[in-house]
Design brief:
Layout lengths: L1 E2 L8 E2 L13 H4 L18 E5 L2 E6 L11 E7 L4 H9 L2 H6 L5 E5 L2 H6 L6 E6 L7 H4 L5 H10 L3 H19 E11 L4 H12 L4 E8 L14 E8 L10 E2 L3 H8 L2 E5 L9 E4 L2 H9 L5 E6 L9 E2 L3 E2 L21 H11 L5 E4 L6 H8 L3 E6 L2 H19 L8 E6 L1 E3 H5 L3 H11 L3 E6 L2 E5 L2 E5 L10 H14 L4 E6 L4 H11 L10 E6 L7 H4 L10 E3 L7 E6 L2 E5 L12 E7 L25 E5 L4 E11 L4 E10 L1
Parallel strand pairs: 6-18, 6-19, 7-8, 7-17, 9-16, 17-18, 20-26, 23-24, 24-25
Antiparallel strand pairs: 1-5, 2-5, 3-4, 5-19, 8-10, 9-10, 11-15, 12-13, 12-14, 21-22, 22-23, 27-28, 28-30, 29-31, 31-32
Helix pairs in contact: 7-8, 11-12, 12-13, 16-17
Length: about 650
């Protein structure tokens, strides 16, 4: 069941502090022959920067384009399956596993994947599959429509193809750092940018670590076109170093392979000098006859193969034609256009990982990768910048465990964690010490033992944090105590107080200190910073102007659910009057579970409902199987990242 977190149980996971990976030295590969003259060739990936100042060379990697910021992870919920203690014990024997899964649970993140990855431990993941936004236009890639997804895609298309490559390279670089030496990465692309991305991955991972360009050829319904129909995607497969995990997969022959054999001619040549009989397969009888007549081919016999077909499996090639495009009526279809079929991920995960290995997808969308990884008994990490995508993924994994795994093997819990966009009501439920630790880390500081009314430090400036409740205020007495603590410590002459609110007399007391009217502690200057103010996130914006929205506090929507009987056993559920409590917020998605049993798992077809224009449908009709008392649940998400679930009990007649 989905556990309601108690005050003392809500944790903020300590982020890792890791050095970056390295790009390989491969000058020979990119060296221009001298006979061509001085033609520059860039051996480094686009966006990689090395700065030389005063004879000192400094690598910025991709940090000049995307500066590093450290913010805490907020665990907002934990979905329990009853076996988590077993995985905590496994952690005791494996420091890397413990660093990646500190609570024993698999992890689903909501937030910017670059910054999330930068806070995960190096060499901790066995396999990464990503299906990043294709360079094919904003409308195609904006699937869920919430603010953070739109902001991310605006960032991607700034500057055309080079901007897209810098954006992707920064993330691929972190993925290389996260991979174990035996790890593999699969990057799923289409014709728009696959050739550009391959050049960049050659630079990041090394040309010798390129393994395959996999062609996924599929069939789908298309309209008449003035061009060849585009019926394939490209998956670039690289390894990190050493000997990668590779479990050979055999596949059934396709219909086209069987048909070729049926049309073929079995030609047995006369034994050669060494006594071996060579067999050929020739598809044109006229060529066979001509070869015999010209004396170029001596035949013992040749017979038409009429009924014979290939039934023997063969090793999978780099052209995959046996996995079909996900059609609109498929049971696993969630409702968005770029969803990939589970058999595609099954093949990748089975080939390049073993049971118990860690699989990651940092563009998880509707959760195909973690759902398949869970079903195949792998550990997993997943992330997406859309809160709707995270809600759909969480639901899909819960459903996978309930319907497909059962008691086959122990399953760890999984957590939903936010990075940068925090649920304010859950922060208010923290105990005082956990609240102070979170606020100080979000402000870019370092928590200290709460002695003498100084709770932390940032760039040498003492910090004071108010109470968790939004109703609380910093008072005049709090200002006086903090100023005295600074005076007694004699560290500096300034300090910063962080809180939801400040009383009028607190502001007046701070102004008096600034005006040097207090004779004893007149050198102390205090800044009063509200947690939801621009000043609180100033340290983020100062690093990059586009980071302004990466640190915010959000409220869950207010749900108004109307239930109307339509006919016998059939009811309509309407949440269209629900409202977002966040600035510029609108309701963006609703999910329904019409047989709620304590853990939210949506009813098939009610997870991501859209009309023909792509707009969210906020009403649903459902026919119950028989009369009785039912618990139903609806989960509502707004476009700012707010999410709330409401449970109702209804009598169906």
């Amino acid at each position: 069941m989905t556990k309601k977190l108690q005050d003392s149980e809500i944790k903020f996971i300590e982020p890792a502090d890791e050095e970056g990976a390295q790009i390989p030295e491969q000058r020979e590969f990119f060296e221009m022959p001298t006979r061509f003259g001085s033609v520059p060739v860039d051996a480094a990936p686009i966006g990689w920067e090395i700065v030389t100042r005063r004879a000192e060379t400094k690598k910025t990697e991709f940090k000049h384009a995307y500066p590093v910021i450290r913010l805490p992870f907020q665990e907002v919920s934990r979905i329990e399956f009853g076996h988590n203690d077993e995985f905590l014990k496994q952690n005791e024997k494996n420091p890397k596993l413990n660093a990646l899964f500190p609570t024993g649970a698999n992890r689903l993140f909501f937030g910017d994947n670059l910054h999330i990855m930068r806070q995960l431990p190096s060499e901790s993941i066995d396999l990464i599959y990503i299906d990043p936004p294709f360079f094919s236009g904003r409308n195609y890639n904006v699937i869920f429509g919430d603010k953070n997804e739109v902001r991310s895609f605006t960032d991607i298309w700034e500057g055309g193809m080079p901007g897209y490559l810098v954006w992707l390279n920064a993330r691929l670089f972190e993925m290389k750092r996260l991979l174990k030496p035996t790890g593999s990465i699969y990057v799923h692309l289409d014709w728009h940018a696959s050739h550009y991305v391959k050049c960049e991955m050659d630079k990041i991972f090394g040309v010798d670590n390129f393994q395959n360009e996999i062609i996924w050829h599929y069939r789908r319904w298309t309209n008449a076109s003035s061009n060849y129909q585009r019926m394939h995607d490209i998956i670039l497969y690289y390894t990190k170093e050493g000997k990668p995990t590779f479990n050979l997969v055999e596949v059934e022959p396709t219909e086209s392979q069987a048909a070729v054999v049926e049309k073929g001619w079995n030609v047995n040549k006369v034994p050669s000098k060494n006594g071996k009989v060579l067999q050929l397969l020739i598809y044109d009888q006229e060529k066979v006859d001509a070869a015999v007549k010209a004396g170029k081919l001596e035949l013992e016999r040749y017979d038409r193969l009429v009924d014979r077909t290939i039934t023997k499996k063969s090793a999978a090639s780099d052209t995959w034609t046996d996995i079909q495009y996900l059609h609109s009526q498929a049971l696993e279809r969630i409702g968005y256009p770029t969803q990939k079929p589970e058999p595609l991920l099954e093949r990748i995960i089975e080939v390049s990982s073993n049971e118990g290995d860690v699989v990651a997808d940092f563009f998880c969308g509707g959760g195909t990768t973690p759902a398949v990884a869970q079903r195949l008994n792998r550990r997993w990490v997943a992330a997406d910048q859309s809160r709707i995508a995270v809600a759909i993924t969480a639901d899909r994994i819960s459903k996978t465990v309930e319907e497909k795994i059962g008691k086959m093997f122990p399953v760890p819990d999984f957590t939903v964690e936010h990075w940068g966009i925090y649920e304010a009501p859950k922060i208010e439920k923290l105990d005082a010490e956990a609240f102070k630790e979170f606020v100080i880390k979000a402000f870019g500081g370092r928590a200290e033992s709460a002695t003498n009314n100084i709770h932390g430090i940032r760039e040498g400036v003492p910090l004071y944090v108010g109470e968790p409740s939004r109703k609380s205020q910093i008072t005049k007495e709090d200002v006086s105590k903090f100023a005295k603590a600074i005076f007694d410590e004699k560290r500096t002459n300034s300090g910063t107080m962080l809180a939801w609110n400040f009383s009028a007399d607190a502001k007046a007391a701070a102004d008096i200190l600034a005006a040097r009217e207090n004779k004893r502690i007149d050198f102390v200057r205090l800044s009063l910073v509200r947690l939801e103010s621009d000043e609180f996130r100033d340290h983020i914006v100062s690093k990059n102007r586009d980071y302004e929205e990466l640190l915010s506090f959000i409220q869950p929507p207010r749900i108004k659910l109307e239930i109307t009987k339509i006919k016998s056993l059939t009811y309509e559920f309407d949440v269209s009057e629900s409202t977002s409590l966040n600035a510029d917020g609108v309701i963006a998605n609703v999910q329904f579970d019409f047989e709620y049993r304590g853990r939210f798992t949506t009813t098939q077809g009610y997870s991501f409902m859209r009309d023909k224009g792509g707009h969210a449908i906020l009403t649903a009709q459902y026919a119950f199987p028989k009369p009785g008392t039912y618990k139903i649940a609806c989960s509502v998400q707004d476009n700012q990242g707010g999410e709330k679930t409401e449970v109702r009990e209804i009598e169906v007649r």
